[in-house]
Every structure is written in structure tokens, then in C-alpha cells.
Design brief:
With about 400 residues, the chain is α/β, with parallel strands linked by helices. Among the domains are: about 60-185, Ribonuclease Inhibitor (Leucine-rich repeat, LRR (right-handed beta-alpha superhelix)); about 190-325, Ribonuclease Inhibitor (Leucine-rich repeat, LRR (right-handed beta-alpha superhelix)), CATH 3.80.10. Helix content is about 30%, strand content about 10%. It has helices at about 10-15, 30-50, 175-185, 255-260, 285-290, 330-360, 360-390, 395-400; strands spanning about 60-65, 70, 90-95, 100, 115, 125, 140, 150, 165, 195, 215-220, 240-245, 270, 275, 305. The termini are far apart.
Amino acid sequence: GCPKPFPASPRSRRRPEGKVAYGAGPGAMPGRGALCLGLLLPVLLGCGSAQQPGGCPDLCECSEPARTVKCVNRNLTVVPPDLPPYVRSLFITGNPLTRLPAGAFSAQRLPDLGALNLSGNHLQTVDAGALALPALRQLDLSGNALVSLSPQAFGEGGSPLEELALRGALRDHGVVLSLAALLQSGALRNLSRLELADNGLVLLPAGMFTALPTLRQLDLSNNSLVGLQNVSFQGLGQLQSLNLSNNSLGMLWNTTLAQFRSLPMLRHIDLGRNTWVCDCAIEDLVAWLKESDQVEGKEALTCAYPDKMLGKALLKINVSDLNCSVPIDLPSQLQTSYVFLGIVLALIGAIFLLVLYLNRKGIKKWMHNIRDACRDHMEGYHYRYEINADPRLTNLSSNSDV
């Protein structure tokens, strides 16, 4: 702390009228008050320039009134350890940051950190306990190349996280499985918004969203999803918005449509820009579209295959327009064919064994005859070999009449 100014002496507090203080005239030496002021001025300036606790890191921009810290494009390789404790919104983006170790953000030092943006870095690994923050509500990890995501990244207990953005961060299949394990563990039960767009996802792990009872918005757009057979929407009673646009969906099975019907809050489903196959299998989807008000822009949904249906609106399809001459459920038909073939082969084998059993005596006699014939034949060869090998019997072997 800075020293307090010296109190003015009683003599200097009041000066008799008509008298000039000592040293007040021209060329006089400075008085005691001016001397104290001169001594205190450097001290006061030093105290004012000293960095207060919770100062801003060198490579960041801080705003204490807004409780915001921005470390954007600063070539950071680690999280700054001296972040001010007042921060509520933290932006660390565009840096060569590759790993978030345990305790990267101190829960004791950052008790109010509620919004954390780590997008556009080079993050590959998120260790256990790296994001264990008591007030974290929003997290953006988009635009990173995640390779390892610990299921305990948010700590051992539950996290208060409400919004999680992972746009373009799940290109590795192992990370998708780790995320599924994290979601299924119940650590993010408070999640209300989940963004998984731009990740090239083809299939989702089974039961990935079953432990998200408060989820309201789910974004799966701009992926390569070919089906939703493994996806269960049961338990998402609060789901209001589902974005499935710009995928590779060819159809939606009746089980998936039944799940959509069972969600009372789901009123916004985006199915645009998918490759719908307009054959007999799409009949249930067309019927659901005509009766449901859950799909946004359903009038713009068109067929992609076959060629004769290309561009035709799904809502304008009639049963007569569909080509149902080819069986739809080809895998089931093949399975039935394999079972029938196995039964036929088993019957043939049983008949063959029965014939062998009934003719066992004749077969045995036939085998004995073949054995005797082979024996006689071999004895003839042996006899001729003995004659040819004995010089005394040469004349005998040359005379075939003997």
C-alpha cells in the first residue's frame, strides 16, 4: 500500500493575516507542504501503475466491464495460466493449440466462466478434467481436428453445460465413439443444444442420444447419413428442432417415423437436400409427409432416384407412380432363400445316407470283389517281376506259351 500523506502541522493550517510564510517569496526555498507533495508524487504514480490482481495476459484483450477475454490469432500453444478471475466469456481461437490437459482451466480461479469458445484451433486431444468448470454453459469446439476426447473431459460429476458445438470436429471415427460414450454416461444431462454438422457422419452409434432428456435442438446437417436405423429418439421429450438437411438419406423407415410422431414438442424437422429414392419403400414417408406438420419446407422435397422420378415432389407421388415389381426387402428374401437351400441339402443328404444303409450288404460284397480283383491283379504283376528278375527263368519268360 502507498504511504498516507503527512498531516499538516498546526502552524501551517492557518496563517496570520499580513504575514508571509517562510520561503514564500521569490527565490525562497520550498516549504514543508511542497516538499511532502514532491516526495509523495512518485509513490502515488508507482501505485497507480502497478498491475492489479487478475490483470490481462500479454497476448490477450480484456474487458473487465464486459467480463470478456479474447485471445484470437495470438499463436498460443497453451492456455494462458493468468486469466483474470472475473472472466465470463473467453475466446481462444485461431491458435496452434493442440491439447487441453487436465486442469487447463482452473475451476478455482475461473468460477464464473460460462461461455468458452475454442473454435478454429488445432486441438487434437482433450484430456480428462480439462473442461471441469462449475459455471460452464456454452462450449464451442468447432473447426478442430479432434483425435482423442476423454469421456471424463468434464470431470467425474455432471456438467452444467447447455450448448455444445462440434461443427467439423468429428472427422475421426474414434472420436465419434468417445462422444457417444460421453453423452450416454449422463455427464451432459443438462444439454439443450447439440451441433454435429459438417462431420461427414455416415452412421451414428446406437443409443447415442438416449441420456439427453433436456435436449431441444439437434443439428445433424451437412453430413453423409444414409439412414437412421441405429438412432433412437426415445427419451428426447423436449426436442423441438431436428436438422437432417444435406445428407444422403434415401428413405425413412416406419419405426423412425413412429418416433417422430411420439415426440410432442418436435415441430421443426428439416429434411431438405437429401437423395430420396422414390420406390415402394418411400410410401410410408410420403403418407407421413402429407399428414404431418412437423417438416419445414416439405413442398420442396423431391426424388433423386430412379431417373423417371427425378425432380418429382414427394407430396405429389401416388401409389401408381411407384414401381413395385421388384421386391423391396431383398435382404430378407435372400435370407429366406438360404434357409430353403439348407433344408433341401439336408434332405438330400439324409436320403443318400438312407440308401447307403439299406444297401449295406451289397455294398460290402461289391467292395470285397473289388479288393479280390485288385489283389489278383497285383499278384500277376509280382509274378512277372520275379520271372524277369531271375536270369534262370529268362527263357521261360520269353516263351509266352510255357
